[in-house]
């Protein structure tokens, strides 16, 4: 602590969450450093270049109901760069690509009988209207969906969709997962609208991240990139943070890193807390970005239920943002959510590319592989904490057994899916406790 009673803070991880926490701590007058392992800040929301396009490494959109994200966009002076568009959704099943935007499209859905469709519609409406998903935390997702949608809709539709997002973890998830997913889809529809309204920043998330970086610099935050933290250990009444660039002492550390990573970095965490952190199951992602000479189907999102396909959805960003934003080309993402033990991780980039290109040409048989101008893969091991049955008991608290060591990460999202708005909600809930603790310490040291 310095002579003015201000504390020194280390924020571990320079994703959106770490940066927003760092900004708020600095605005409250503290000395803050952000230590980020990657060469650039931004984490999952970071951008990269592909062909001559700079856009998100992982597709990102903003929903009209994303209150906190919209407030951040406004605070960063980017509201005028926000673009709202109606999005179109597709559905590929049994070798057929169909639109899925209206009740008529829905009735025409292949591979489901009329009764199964009716029960499916009821389940969607029912889930969207549940305000409090906490009771669903104890119910296995398969049991809940079978109960409300029936076995046919579960086996033919829900199960493949769950597998698409959760891989082999689908059996472990609670019904809270599907509740949170359906509610977010529902929030993308403004009242009475037949299609979803989605927003994005002209220029991609890169603009949010660079405005955030500028704001952090002006607030005096020290941002150190290319600096993986290797150990965090108490040292007197401070914490020593070790990195490849050396060791530094801080009064407080906030880890925004995944639970298992946090547990491994800090030996002094209690065995109970380490066990709790290690019990959180993470889903990873292998996500391809493709630049094409031609459009695909015109759907921002295409759901896939065919388990033979190597990826789990098709996201045609240019169908939403407009090809004019990408120099007349199309920007397409092919995500595959991957469980930790999935052998898919072992495939090298060439093998993944061969499978993904074979998959996309199966859905779009008229796509000439020569139209693929660029292909780039992102691999991230710890993307999303899976809301397993009883997850609410596993969620780590902000405070730990070590004074000054705090955990604030996206595993603390308990009422939604992984998205920036919910992540900002985690920061919003934690900050009064972080700042309250620091203020209490300041007062006791001043006494
Ligand atoms: C495919 C995909 C699509 C998405 N689409 C949307 C969307 O449309 N809309 C939306 O709102 N959200 C979306 N999201 C979610 C959004 O990206 C996340 O909610 C948000 O970026 C999480 O931020 P975070 O800071 O919590 O985590 P992260 O971004 O994971 O940040 C953690 C940081 O910690 C760093 N780190 C890890 N280990 C260490 C270490 N040892 N030392 C130092 N640093 C370390 C990492 O490099 C990383 O930068 C999407 C995510 C994915 C993967």
Automatic annotation (TrEMBL):
Pfam families: Amino_oxidase (PF01593)
Stored NCBIfam families: PRK07233.1 (NF005560)
Protein name per its UniProtKB record: 15-cis-phytoene desaturase
Domain of life: Bacteria
Residue span, Amine oxidase domain: 20-411
Hydrolase is among the record's keywords: no
Any GO MF annotation of the entry: oxidoreductase activity
EC annotation from Swiss-Prot or TrEMBL: 1.3.5.5
InterPro entries reported for this sequence: Amino_oxidase, FAD/NAD-bd_sf, Zeta_carotene_desat/Oxidored
Gene3D superfamilies (UniProt xref): FAD/NAD(P)-binding domain, protoporphyrinogen ix oxidase, domain 3, Protoporphyrinogen oxidase, mitochondrial, domain 2
Keywords for the protein's UniProt record, in alphabetical order: Oxidoreductase
Root EC class: oxidoreductase
Native source organism of the sequence: Albidovulum aquaemixtae
Coiled coil: none
């Amino acid at each position: 602590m310095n002579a003015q009673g201000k504390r020194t803070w280390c924020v571990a991880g320079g994703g959106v969450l770490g940066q927003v926490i760092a900004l708020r701590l600095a605005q409250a007058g503290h000395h803050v450093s952000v230590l980020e392992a990657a060469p650039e800040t931004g984490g999952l929301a970071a951008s990269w270049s592909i062909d001559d396009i700079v856009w998100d490494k992982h597709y990102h959109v903003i929903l009209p109901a994303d209150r906190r994200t919209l407030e951040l966009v406004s605070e960063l002076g980017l509201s005028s760069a926000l673009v709202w568009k109606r999005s179109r959704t597709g559905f590929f099943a049994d070798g057929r690509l169909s639109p899925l935007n209206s009740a008529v499209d829905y009735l025409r859905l292949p591979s489901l009988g009329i009764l199964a469709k009716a029960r499916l519609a009821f389940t969607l409406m029912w889930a969207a209207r549940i305000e409090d998903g906490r009771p669903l935390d104890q119910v296995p997702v398969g049991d809940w969906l079978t109960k409300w949608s029936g076995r046919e809709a579960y086996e033919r539709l829900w199960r493949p969709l769950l597998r698409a997002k959760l891989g082999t973890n689908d059996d472990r998830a609670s019904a809270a997962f599907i509740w949170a997913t359906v509610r977010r889809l529902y929030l993308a529809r403004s009242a009475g609208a037949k299609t979803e309204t989605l927003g994005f920043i002209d220029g991609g998330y890169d603009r949010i991240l660079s405005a955030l970086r500028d704001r952090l610099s002006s607030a005096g935050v020290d941002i150190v990139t290319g600096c993986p933290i290797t150990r965090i250990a108490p040292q007197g009444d401070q914490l020593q943070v070790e990195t490849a660039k050396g060791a530094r002492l801080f009064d407080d550390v906030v880890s925004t890193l995944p639970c298992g990573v946090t547990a491994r970095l800090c030996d002094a965490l209690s065995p109970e807390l380490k066990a709790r952190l290690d019990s959180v199951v993470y889903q990873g992602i292998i996500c391809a970005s493709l630049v094409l000479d031609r459009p695909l189907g015109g759907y921002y999102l295409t759901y896939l239920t065919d388990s033979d396909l190597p990826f789990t959805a098709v996201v045609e960003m240019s169908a939403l943002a407009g090809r004019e934003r990408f120099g007349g080309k199309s920007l397409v993402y092919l995500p595959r959510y991957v469980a930790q033990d999935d052998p898919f991780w072992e495939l090298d980039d060439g093998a993944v590319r061969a499978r993904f290109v074979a998959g996309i040409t199966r859905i779009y048989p008229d796509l000439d592989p020569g139209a693929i101008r660029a292909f780039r893969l992102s691999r991230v091991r710890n993307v999303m904490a899976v809301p397993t049955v009883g997850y609410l008991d596993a969620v780590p608290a902000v405070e730990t057994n070590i004074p000054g060591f705090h955990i604030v990460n996206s595993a603390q999202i308990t009422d939604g899916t992984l998205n920036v708005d919910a992540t900002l909600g985690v920061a919003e809930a934690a900050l009064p406790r972080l700042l309250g603790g620091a203020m209490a310490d300041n007062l006791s040291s001043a006494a």
